[in-house]
Write a structure and sequence with these properties.
The structure holds two protein chains of two kinds. By secondary structure, chain A is an alpha/beta fold. Chain A has eleven helices and eight strands. In chain A, strands 3-2-4-5-1-6-7-8 form an eight-stranded mixed beta sheet, sandwiched between helices. In chain A, strand 4, helix 9 and strand 5 form a beta-alpha-beta unit. In chain B, the strands form five sheets. A seven-stranded antiparallel beta sheet of chain B has the order 17-16-15-21-20-19-18, with no helix packed on it. Chain B has a five-stranded mixed beta sheet with strand order 5-6-1-7-8, sandwiched between helices. In chain B, strands 9-12-10-11 form a four-stranded antiparallel beta sheet, with helices on one face. Classes of the chains: A alpha/beta, B alpha+beta.
């Protein structure tokens, strides 16, 4: 806490000293004392190591109070990538983001989805409160296959582009750099190099006014990433998401958060699920018993 | 009356340079590449770089090539010059409807000067005193993309302005006496009839128009004919000089013959940019926006009687939002060309605009607003469509069908919205909850002890069954019992058991299937 940048401590105090204050070294001492007390009050870009980071941009509320409390700025960051790492699609990632996406749509802005890993059910998205007609799905994969189907000759350029991840990320980068898209949700190709991600992060930081989520495989947690916020999502039970903060502007959080997602199950089914969590053991016992007999 | 004369001293050379590949004229080469135009056997025009090497118009081809082996020689082409001049005329038509062309001083010289009558347009350009400079600046900015060197003179008479523009640049004659003073000092060879009598006039010691005008008129008429006097009178404003205004063609169709074969799209694009600049000038003249245009690339056959190479490739550019923004059109064209395989080298380009929208251009905005964001979005989507193909940018759509695989669809954004009948909104009763990820085709699941397995682990059924029986009328019969199940890691999945006996359900199969994942 004693480490105060020399430039800051030497600068004159922002407020005038009181009228009765003695001239001399007193104001500088006061400023130093104030800095020691609360440097984070000086500028929104300044915070201490044990505090959560803040920024001048207001964040998008996530809709989960316990998550908001742990995120810098109190929500999903704007002007920056948010990385979500999942073991497989279908752990509750859309239900986690639906509140933020619906709020973006309610402001009349467009939401773009890049390369979803499976067909999306329009009815399910509508049930989550999203406006289906205002979602744009962009498929950058399998470019060679589509064009070869139409044109009789083989087009070498299309094949080259398909194997090139930079070509696939072109569309995403354009969307982020245009600054006209409200929110972006992109499933990135596996084993992506960090410099490609850095390009995306730069495009998002410079122009994109809104949250940008990139979804990647869980293995990517071991590799560095320029995204300022990284979360690992795992299913934590029926309608429960276990969320681990891998990286944030602030102190690390060791224990994963457990979020209650908007329920899919009816209360009765939920009870059955909770009862069933103990149930498998007797079934196995019975099976071993039968085998021994 | 106030006329602006735009004289293009190097029109033919610049029109020729536009057809050259980029390697010859781009960047540092632009100023240093020696170019020359050639008539049957002698040079007609040379550019500054060629002149620096000592080339002169009138030299023989062999002499010129002996002096400068790297000289780029092109043929004179009146049609090419006319097309380039047309673009200047179209750009000028955006400022005034009174635009006409003026030829050179030789009797059969092609036009190389554009005349604009701007008296009526002046009041659109700010307060008194700064109107004309403002208009001239705007005019030159509009003409800049066409890439011509200009000599601009404004004067009260069209012929006076045209004559002075041949020798001066930036002169403004506000009234008759000023014009008279300027013309009196101008050389006598500017006059058309003066050129054929040039030797005689020089022999008489006449060098300027002022000296010529001081001679008795009757004597001049007897000696040199009426034409000389007539032209002097029109230039000085002593005789009416009616001009026929140029009428804008109803459709845009412009060609560009490339000097060298274009093998790559980059080379094609360079030529196409010239045509796009002409298109934008034509659109500007009538305050219209283009909605659809076609770029046709004429190919050169690779060998004689080559029947497999198509004669031309047409590339159609359709815009979601009509536009006349040259930059936007160029980006679209670049993306489309990059994904287009060219069967053979291109030797000629042709740009046609079929579909234009006559409407005012949208207002520019200083701060981002909803309208500008919408326009930016439309352009972003157009760019994505141009690069990825229109079928890859899609919108989700809800359909009223109970079979989950038919309840949703995607359609390209470019397609018009479906009729309300096909999207009959929500069904009468609210649907039970549906998973976000809808796998199709469904993934068959193994079964052990009557329980379905996912990745070798048993699934726990939590909710269901929800029975769906539908589709007997369209051959895709589905009789299924759907359950929500929990995988061992806690994720919820949507599985079903096919109810049809295996014999009847060849397409469906029997047993358990995974169809969805709740995300």
């Amino acid at each position: 806490m004693d480490i105060v940048p020399a430039g800051l401590s030497a600068s004159p105090p922002p407020a005038l000293p009181p009228a009765g204050a003695r001239p001399g070294p007193r104001p500088a001492d006061e400023a130093r004392a104030r800095l020691r007390a609360a440097p984070e009050t000086l500028h929104p870009g300044l915070w201490l190591g044990h505090q959560l980071g803040r920024s001048a941009e207001r964040a998008e509320p996530t809709g989960f109070a316990e998550l908001d409390a742990q995120l810098p700025g109190g929500g999903w960051p704007r002007r920056g990538l948010t990385e979500l790492l999942l073991p497989h699609p279908g752990v509750g990632e859309i239900r986690l983001l639906a509140g933020c996406l619906a709020a973006t749509q309610a402001r009349g802005r467009l939401v773009m989805l890049f390369d979803p890993p499976a067909p999306l059910s329009a009815w399910a998205l509508a049930q989550l409160g999203l406006e289906v007609e205002q979602l744009l799905v962009i498929d950058t994969r399998a470019q060679g296959a589509g064009e070869a189907g139409r044109a009789p000759g083989h087009d070498p350029a299309a094949g080259r582009r398909e194997s090139d991840p930079a070509g696939r990320l072109w569309a995403l980068e354009q969307a982020l750099a245009s600054g006209h898209v409200g929110a972006v949700l992109a499933w990135l190709p596996p084993r992506l190099r960090a410099d490609r991600l850095r390009r995306l992060q730069l495009a998002a930081a410079q122009a994109h006014d809104g949250p940008a989520f990139v979804l990647r495989e869980l293995d990517a947690a071991r590799r560095p990433s320029p995204a300022p916020l990284r979360l690992a999502l795992r299913p934590g039970g029926p309608d429960v998401l276990s969320l681990q903060l891998l990286k944030r502007r602030g102190p690390p959080l060791e224990s994963p958060l457990t979020l209650e997602l908007p329920p899919v199950l009816s209360p009765i089914a939920l009870q059955r699920a909770q009862a069933g969590r103990v149930a498998p053991a007797p079934v196995l016992h019975a099976a071993t018993f039968v085998n021994l007999a | 009356m106030l006329w602006i004369a735009l004289h293009l001293p190097a029109l033919s050379l610049e029109a020729f340079a536009a057809t050259l590949p980029a390697t010859l004229t781009a960047g540092a080469n632009a100023a240093t590449a020696p170019l020359a135009l050639m008539d049957a056997r002698a040079l007609v025009a040379v550019n500054a770089a060629a002149r620096a090497f000592g080339l002169q118009p009138g030299m023989k081809r062999a002499t010129a090539l002996g002096l400068v082996p790297q000289l780029v020689l092109g043929p004179v082409d009146a049609a090419r010059d006319a097309a380039a001049l047309d673009a200047v005329v179209h750009a000028a038509l955006a400022f005034t409807p009174q635009v006409s062309c003026q030829g050179g001083s030789a009797p059969d010289a092609p036009p190389d000067t554009v005349l604009l009558e701007v008296q009526a347009s002046l009041r659109c350009f700010g307060g008194p005193g700064r109107q004309l400079p403002l208009l001239l600046r705007r005019l030159q900015a509009t003409l800049a993309p066409l890439g011509h060197r200009l000599q601009v003179v404004s004067a009260p008479t069209p012929l006076g302005a045209a004559l002075l523009a041949r020798v001066q640049h930036g002169l403004h004659c506000a009234d008759g006496p000023a014009l008279q003073r300027a013309l009196d000092a101008a050389p006598v060879w500017l006059l058309g009839p003066g050129r054929e009598h040039w030797d005689a006039l020089q022999g008489m010691g006449l060098r300027t128009l002022g000296e010529l005008r001081r001679l008795p008129r009757a004597g001049l008429a007897r000696r040199f004919g009426d034409g000389l006097l007539d032209e002097i009178d029109r230039a000085y404003g002593q005789r009416p000089d009616p001009r026929v205004p140029v009428v804008l063609p109803a459709a845009f169709d412009s060609r560009l013959e490339l000097f060298a074969r274009a093998d790559t799209t980059e080379q094609v694009l360079r030529g196409a940019e010239v045509l796009l600049a002409r298109l934008v000038a034509w659109l500007d003249a009538q305050h219209a926006l283009v909605r659809r245009c076609t770029l046709q690339m004429q190919h050169e056959s690779r060998w004689r009687r080559d029947t497999r190479t198509p004669e031309a490739t047409a590339l159609e550019i359709a815009l979601a939002e009509p536009s006349r923004d040259a930059m936007h059109l160029r980006v679209l064209l670049r993306e489309r060309l990059a994904s287009l395989p060219l069967p053979a080298p291109t030797i000629e380009l042709r740009l046609q605009a079929h579909d234009i929208a006559r409407q005012a251009a949208p207002n520019g905005e200083l701060f981002p607003s909803a309208a500008s964001e919408r326009e930016g979005l439309v352009r972003l989507i157009e760019r994505l469509q141009a690069r990825l193909g229109p079928a890859r940018v899609r919108r989700l759509q809800r359909l009223s069908d109970h079979r989950p695989e038919r309840a949703g669809a995607t359609r390209p954004v470019a397609d018009p919205a479906p009729s309300p009948a096909s999207t009959a909104g929500a069904p009468a009763a609210p649907l039970p909850v549906r998973p976000v990820w809808m796998l199709w085709p469904p993934e068959p699941l193994h079964e052990r002890l009557a329980r379905p397995l996912l990745d070798g682990r048993p699934l726990q059924l939590l909710s269901g069954p929800e029975r769906i029986e539908s589709g007997w009328w369209d051959g895709a019969l589905a009789e299924r019992d759907y359950f929500i199940a929990q995988a061992t890691d806690g994720a919820l999945v949507w599985i079903y058991r096919a109810r049809l006996p295996p014999a009847e359900s060849d397409a469906e199969g029997a047993g358990w299937f995974l169809q969805g994942r709740f995300a």
